[in-house]
Amino acid sequence: MTSSTTLSSSAFIARATAAAAVAILMTLTACAPLYGASDSAPVAAPLIDNPKTAGSTQTAVIAAGCFWGVQGVFEHVRGVQRAVSGYSGGSKGTAEYETVSSGRTGHAESVRITFDPAQISYGQILQIAFSVVHDPTELNHQGPDVGTQYRSAIFYSNPEQRRIAESYIAQLNQAHAFSRPIVTQVAPLEGFYPAEGYHQDYLVHHPSSPYIAFNDLPKVKHLEREFPDLYAAHPVLAGSP
Questions:
Q1: Which contiguous run of DSSP H or E holds residue 81?
Q2: Does 66 participate in catalysis according to the annotation?
Q3: pLDDT per residue over 147-183, tens digit each?
Q4: How confident is the model at residue 40, as a pLDDT?
Q5: Could you tell me if residue 231 is inside a domain?
Q6: pTM for the structure as a whole
Q7: Secondary structure of residue 15 in the 3-state scheme
Q8: Total domains, the chain
Q9: How far apart are the C-alpha atoms of 149 and 89, rounded to whole Å?
Q10: Tens digits of per-residue pLDDT, 175-231?
Q11: Residues facing 82 on adjacent strands
């Protein structure tokens, strides 16, 4: 897919077909959520984290399945100033939707989150990712989307982010917060490449899309319910980066 008007690409059709199948199944099952983050209480906060303190904005880059939903959730998080959909894990030359969708580029659909450290900590961002955004025990798979480009990953930009991420995963595994081990990759951030403009703010612009309605809007509601102090009713929009 190369523009907002050319929605007939093989990758987009595959996602739309999966969404249609889910829509039918959801109707047959009284529209109960079938996948995504667990609809239970959020996992515990990280024991090792940066304290909230005034200072320059910081960034976090995470991958947690299709970036539409990841971006859509974090645009509703208080303290987040911008969330941009993009690609991380591969080279600049392959950071393009059709190519990434092949699953052979090393890229993961990712979101770069710019946040105010006085309002939200890096650890809280990871807590939301594990509690609301996705299932970190699924390997190269989230909901109807399958492939390495949908893997769970945290791309750290400094040693402190790495320490918090690795410690948090160990904490959750030790506490058996999930029924299976966490498979989230923790890797250095070697580059983030913003996705095409039509991917930005997709949840906001297409709330009636079956894919968004059944996969992602429940996550925003889950955020509001489980993290009321961090929920912002009005999303911050990325626009076209």
A1: strand 80-88
A2: yes
A3: 999 999 999 999 999 999 999 999 999 999 999 999 9
A4: 56
A5: no
A6: 0.86
A7: helix
A8: 1
A9: 9
A10: 999 999 999 999 999 999 999 999 999 999 999 999 999 999 999 999 999 999 999
A11: 114
Catalytic residue among 62, 66, 154, 164: 66
How far CA 82 is from CA of 23, 35, 183, in Å, comes to 30, 26, 27
102 occurs within a structural domain: yes
Query: In terms of residue numbers, what domain contains 58?
Result: 10-226
Structure tokens at 220: 């925003």
DSSP-based three-state secondary structure for 105? coil
Residues 6+ apart with CB under 8 A from 14: none
Q: Rounded to whole angstroms, how far apart are CA atoms 129 and 120?
A: 13
Please report whether residue 16 resides in a domain: yes
Q: What is the DSSP letter of 78?
A: T
Whether 237 maps to a domain, the answer reads no
Q: CA-CA distance, 186 to 9, in Å (whole number)?
A: 31
Write down the number of H helices and E strands in the chain. Answer: 8, 8
